[in-house]
Amino acid sequence: VKVEIDSFSGHKIYPSRGRIFVRGDSKIFRFSKPKHESMFKQRKNPRVIAWTQVYRRQHKKGVADQVQKKKTRKTVKSQRGYAGLSLADLAAKKAESPAARLAAREAAINKAKQEKKAAATKDGKPKAARPAGQASGPKVSKQQMKNAPGKGGR
Amino acid sequence: MLGLKATMTIIDNSGALLAECVNVLKRKTGHGLATVGDEIVVVVQKARPVSAVASQSATALKIRRGDVRRAVVVRTKKEVIRPDGRKIRFDDNAAVLINTKKELLATRINGVVSADLRMKGWGKIASIAPKVM
């Protein structure tokens, strides 16, 4: 059973109640009571007639009683591991203290320097093809160059 | 509630525009009133000018002012009660022309017609109509 609503007052219209008026432009108007139909015929504006639903909604009458349920949308931040760094490693890295991080960095730097030094002294013979503008002599590490007397840092 | 002297618009493309009721073919009485789905006899009061092509041909539909024809009422200003209790009324009175064999004279209908036509046995008119309320 479809319960219609009155076009003028907004009241509910149950079956076999009221009247339906089809205007020349095929627009349908439903009325639950002759009073509403009469008002419509007199071309009254429901927005200024105080007992109509249109008026009540416009002037926010009787709305304060209704509890407005506020729906808050919370975004949940989820941690994910990605290629190269699993979630466990990520967590471990986060948990590192700044001091630990610094120490690790230092160690890595030193390690790299050592490796570089070893590599430099191993193939001390200059590489045959060397782009112009580079060192003319044998490959010399920065430290050696710094320590070499009379030679400005490169 | 259309009786003698009631005017209505003709909403098909037969050429007639306005018609006046002359007789209601319901019973042998002379004071009957026609509602949606009733057959009436009308006099065409206003008609569109018959086109040159039509006036040449012998078979084309030629509706002129003063023609006495039959019609079926399709819309009334007086409300009609449906079996489920609803009451529907339209903004004007309207009819479509038919012949004595209950066939439509025109080919198209423009506008709304009442759904009561189907119940009274004029399903053909209802099916041609663009909108049925």
TrEMBL record, chain A:
Keywords: Ribonucleoprotein, Ribosomal protein. CDD domains: Ribosomal_L24e_L24. It holds the Pfam family Ribosomal_L24e. InterPro entries: L24e/L24_sf, Ribosomal_eL24, Ribosomal_eL24-rel_N. One of its GO terms (biological process) is cytoplasmic translation. Belongs to the eukaryotic ribosomal protein eL24 family. This is Large ribosomal subunit protein eL24-related N-terminal domain-containing protein.
UniProtKB/TrEMBL annotation, chain B:
Signal peptide: none annotated. It comes from the Eukaryota. GO terms for molecular function: large ribosomal subunit rRNA binding; structural constituent of ribosome. SUPFAM superfamilies: Ribosomal protein L14. GO terms for cellular component: mitochondrial large ribosomal subunit. GO terms for biological process: translation. Belongs to the universal ribosomal protein uL14 family. Component of the mitochondrial ribosome (mitoribosome), a dedicated translation machinery responsible for the synthesis of mitochondrial genome-encoded proteins, including at least some of the essential transmembrane subunits of the mitochondrial respiratory chain. The mitoribosomes are attached to the mitochondrial inner membrane and translation products are cotranslationally integrated into the membrane. This is Large ribosomal subunit protein uL14m.
